[in-house]
Design brief:
single chain; 4% helix; globular
Length: 889
Amino acid sequence: MDKANARPIAFAMVDIVGTQLGSQADLDGRYRITNVPVGMHRVRARRLGFQPAVIDSVRVTEGEATIQNFAMASAAAQIAAVQTTAVAATRASDAAMLAEQRAAPSVSDGISAQAMARAPGANAADAITRVTGVSIVDKKFTVVRGLPERYNNTMLNGVELPSPEPLRKIVPLDIFPSSLLESIVASKTATPDKPGDFSGGSVEIRTKEFPENRVIQGSISQDWNSLATLQRVSYVPHRGLDWLGFGGSDRSMPPRLSPGAQGDELERFAENMRNVWAPTPRRAPPGLGFGLSIGDRIRNLGYTVALTYSSKVDFLPDKMYQFLSDNRFGVAERGYVARESNSTVDWGATANVSLLAGSSNKIGLKNLYTRNAEEVITQSQAFETTRQDPGRLRSYQVRYVERELLQTQLTGDHALILNSRLEWKATYAQAARDEPDNRSATYLEDINTGNYYLQTSIQGQIWFRFLEDRVLSGNADWSLPVPIWGGREALFKTGGMYRDKQRDFDASLFAYRPALAPPSGAAVFGLPPEEAFSPEHVGTFPTSDIALFKLDAFALPYHAKDNLAAGYGMLDLPLFSWFRIVAGARAEKWMLDVNPKTGQVAFDSITQRRDLDILPSVNLTVSLTDRINLRLAGYQTVARPDPRELSNDYYTPVTGECSNQGNNQLLRTQVDNADVRLEFYPSGSELFALSGFIKRFARPVIETVNQPQATTCVVQYMNGESAQTYGGELEMRSSLAFLPLVPEGVAGSLNFTIVETEAKLGELFQDEKVPFMGQSPYVVNANLSYTGFGDRLTATLLGNAYGDRIVRYGATSLSSTGLLQIPHVYEQKRSTIDAKVSMRATNRVTISLSGRNLGDSAQRFYQGSAQGRVQTGFMRPGVTVKAGAGVEF
């Protein structure tokens, strides 16, 4: 690759000195020399316009490929070869990640497959928390540089993805098993050849490509959680295809009702409803995981196939939530304490093929599928002080959700005349979220007897919700090298993309309503839910004790077309050997139509957006020395609301929590950004970097909590007035062997991010200036690792900490005494410690032991009031220990 910009050097000649063995590099700079004798060799790489490079002592062993990379510097004329010593590095290694980051045109940070393997996390969300300036909210959504997920985007192999989440635009990272990934890179400044709808970071996930050696690997693991494993937990064991995340017929929604269904049809629907509420507690088994990967390269054809699977049961015995709607008093109006079990299945597969057709053309096919299913069973003691019939509540909820993501991508890479290059991608992606079972029932305590009964004033809810996103996109990029002075080459690049995105959301909401005069007598309402909601008691009035009613006002299906057309032009210009400028502009045309499908005139108004954005960007790199870069960047980006946020639908995530309602008046957010970064690379595996950034937002989209009625709270979306974010990042990675008494093989890393935001949200917030939602004032990651005994043993200790952050804004609320300010909801600062030890027991067998949240850290939430902080949420996930073994065949 080109040392200056990390671009591959196509058609370079590589030969083994003193022999007739040699090869020419392909479009990716890859070369392959076969039939090389076992032993030590001297390898040379040459290409007109570059300094030749010679590497001594390259060891070739029997039966496997030896990987040797070259980073070549440009030269005005052919000069004597430069002799170097180098360490072999695959694209999935830490060294390759740092080399790419060093030569990239923009500011970026990432994590390689090698680093992911050293950490105990199982998915991309776990892995990316190790990246500078990145944190995770709700265990799956990225916050980059303190900016919530709406100001970031996610790409898989260079293409934006649909999301299976109904309340989020960005893709949740917990659906990507880390064992399928080659790297995760967060680009923090914009270039015209990348989508412009981000401000914090553009997160690109890359799946593993074919290996140079034939690989057949298998792994198996079990994990134990301190709160769940072998404890008595109320959950439903897997049956049928449950273990693959395909719920059986008993979890499915009953056959759909005809419009206006009544009588017998509605009664049959009610009787077919799943009747699981509080399963008999049983001992939860340890979590199970396994993986398999196969890959090889056969002449010009490379392939890889990988599969990963995990299944586990989690348990939260004392989850707590409550809500304050008045900042004058430290008293909550509603809340609950729950015992919650979560049974999950995650699996995924990749199948990638790459074919080199001659020396100038490459065709690739990449496929990824992931599936996740979870069943949450909650039993809680609750209260609502605003009810007319005071008393404690006992609630039951069962929620079963399936999520899936599919992407298939055909790619082409062609060398054309004038050394130009054409790259294209045709991609189909589909994300789906099925919620075929989400039921809740609430009992009220009789204050005289202490017994609990169903009440006519409290309706149980049954949600059926189905979301599907389909994306068809095409990308084309053409680049042309242009010789300039000093033997250097500028690169002109242009291209475009078109994305056709279709979303369908369908929802049905039903309510259980107890009869005023139940045929079976009032005692039926005191029965456990499995008995009270059995077919003989549920149906329609007047023959049933509990009737089922369909509610249309709060379940509003819609169809959305969220299309985007984009084109760009950019110039990568090395004006001098020490100064590089990458500049250009990107034009994006957003075309959105949200069409409600309710059949109700009051809600059937079409929401449209037709916005054209011209997004210029400039990235400057000044090479102060061959190891020190100073980077400066200025660019404009945009953040667009999701179709869900523009619909009028109500969405209730969990019984007892606030519902979400969209706002069809939302406008996009425009952002001006500026960055500066000083980076020093002492060696191929070490880095010291210091960054600063500032961002200004026009009309940021925010989420607020309102209380339109005494017994309800609703999360709503609105545009704030403006915001300004500024902050800094520090990253250090280094071997620690230079310290006294520290053995060889010990290395450490530390990254620290501080962020400050002043968001002016408007009159509803009394012109208060607050941070962005999800933003911590600081995020810290620390890593201490040891590699020894001939690389047979690796041990890693990892720490993560973040400061208090707002998870929900509180707006003003109208009450009988006037306007009240609902306090913001904060997540309290938290720190965690993880560790992993891995040992190669034989040449083919590796065993590992890892632990997560070793300090048993809990998540706590609070709201402020005139009486001080009030804890309004608590969740303790426990300590998880995982043992695994891997084998290479």
